Each structure stands twice: as structure tokens, then as C-alpha cells.
Sequence to fold (372 residues):
Amino acid sequence: MERACRAALACLPQMSPLALPRLLAMAGGAVGLWELIAKDKSGLEKVVGEERAALWVDACRKTDPVQVLSSLAEKGIRVILPEDGALPQGVWSIYDPPALLFAQGREAGSGAPFVAVVGARKASSYGKRSAAFLACELARCGVVVVSGAAYGIDGHAHRGCLEAGGFTVAVLGCGIDRVYPPEHGPLFEHIKEQGCLLSEYAPGEDPLPWRFPHRNRIIAGLVQAVVVVEASEKSGALITAEFALEEGREVLAVPGPIDSPISRGTNALIQKGAKLVAGVEDVLEELRYFQPRYEPGTGGGEAGAQLSFAGDMHPRDKVLLALLRDGSQSLDRLVEMAGVSPGEILSRLASLALKGWVTQEPGGKYGMSRPL
Fold:
């Protein structure tokens, strides 16, 4: 009943996602708040005003919370609560955390690392290529790519992840059932098939301008790191970076031409201490993502996923495992013996770690987790 009441409360007219958690705390939960509103508006008027209180009382008396939840389910919309464990717990502990999140698509899980790739809507061809490339490479390493489904960098980050067969999360600044921008309809459908859409806004809520900066705190809360690809000096992507810093997340930036207005924000981030991203290995290093995130046989980013066997591996993965079979090796030694770039080695090691074959050992060496 708590889930149904929380969903129904979020769908009340003029309910603010910022106000709802405070009201829940005041009433001791969603069931208590629903009953309080339905029975008597006198105390509520002092908190939300007479007009809004009257709207809520009328809506509560005409609405069955269980029916609200059922109607959402019929539309393929799930209601995610903090206790579900369906998302990284960090999103529920940010400043002004959401009371719930609406979701469409597949379940994201919380085992793999989440990384945001964000940036300018009016992105350059360089920025679009960079976003797609980074998202693609991160996806190949088992990282969940998060962005805001906007034009420019966001859209290309989602597409790059999807092209690699990865899981991507789009956090919306409107109702979960609204397609904004409208031209991204096919992209939204692809995301629902291979990833998921998330929003704290109830179905039907319009994409109002103030909602997009507000939703950026959700993006920052979901992830371990934010990569800003292109951003002007007043870009919304910089708001996401600020939220990330406030929540203790890593912030990285892709450098751009010094004469490009949409690179001024990213270049300034680097000047202030954000890590410069020259390749996917820079992101992986910041994540410290070289250790298995699940026990062999229990699944990884996908529930029930099984370990890969050597016969199904990429040829370079087989080479690395052969080099590690006789003992642990440093990164420099692996680069020397394999004859490929450090970035390629790091990407392959991260992929092998995700599959449970390789682990990072004390002293910076890499070794086998299990025999071939």
C-alpha cells in the first residue's frame, strides 16, 4: 500500500517532487499522508496553501491508489522506491532526494558502475563523435551510461552505448510518458528496449524549462562519475557537474579547441581540477574499475549472466590471459609483451574483470581470478 499511495501522491495535481519527500516525512509515510489529505485539509492549508490543499483533498477522495498503480503498470510504467535496490543507492541519499522514480524499459540493476556522459545541446561534430565513442567504449566494458536524452551530446551518448549493446539510462525532465524532444521518439523506443527511461515527474507532466536543471541532480546521484564532453560557460551540463561535486562524485571533462565557445565550460573544468579525458581508459582509471563486481556464476550487470569461456573471447582477451597464466604482470609489462596501446590493454582488462577472469592485485599488478 505504501507504493500505491506514494505513486498516487506523486500524481496529484501541482505536487512538487521537492515537496513530496518533506510531506512524507511530516506524515510518517505515504499511507499516513494520503489519509491525512483525504480526511481533513485544515492542517494542510498552512503548509501548501488553501487552493492546492482543496485540489488534493478532492483528488484523494476520488482516487484509489491501488488503481493508480495498476493503471501505471498497464502503461508499462514501474514505480521504483529506495528500498527496492533497483538503482544505485546513491541517488536516494543526495540533497533533496526523490521520493520515488517512474521507470519504463528494462531494470537497470546496481552491480555495474554508472557513468554520466553529458554536454551541449548544440554540439559540434567533434563533440558528438567524442560522446558516442566514449559511451560505446564504456558500454563495451560493462559500464551503464547515463544521460539526459537531449539533443547533441546526450543523444549521441545514448546512441553510442546502444550501438555497443550496452545498457543506457535516460533521465527525463518531464513525465515518463512524454517524448521530449519529439524528434527523439525512435531513440526513446530503442532505450526502452535496451535500457530504461527514468523520471521523478508524474506521467503527463510537461517539459518545462526549470525541470531540466532540477533533474540534473538525479543524473549526478545515479553515477560514480560525470564526463562533460562539450559545454559553454552557462551550460546545463555544468550544473550536473556541480551537483556531482557536491555529492562527492568524480568529474571529468573532454578538452576542446580554445577558440570554440562550447568548449569554454569543459576547458574551465579542467583548469579547476577536473580530470582531462583523452580516452576511455581515463574514465576507467577514475572508477578504479578493474575488480570483479560479482561472484563467478552469480551474474554481472545482467541478472543471471554467466561467465564467458575462453573459446568465446575476443582474440586480444585470449592473448592477455595467456600472458597472465604464468603469473601476475604490471600494466607496463603487459603493454610491452602484447604490443598494443595502454588504452587498449586497460579496456580489455576492464572487460575481463567484469567477466570474472582478471583481478587487480596489490602493487598495481594484474592476475588471473580463475584458471583457463
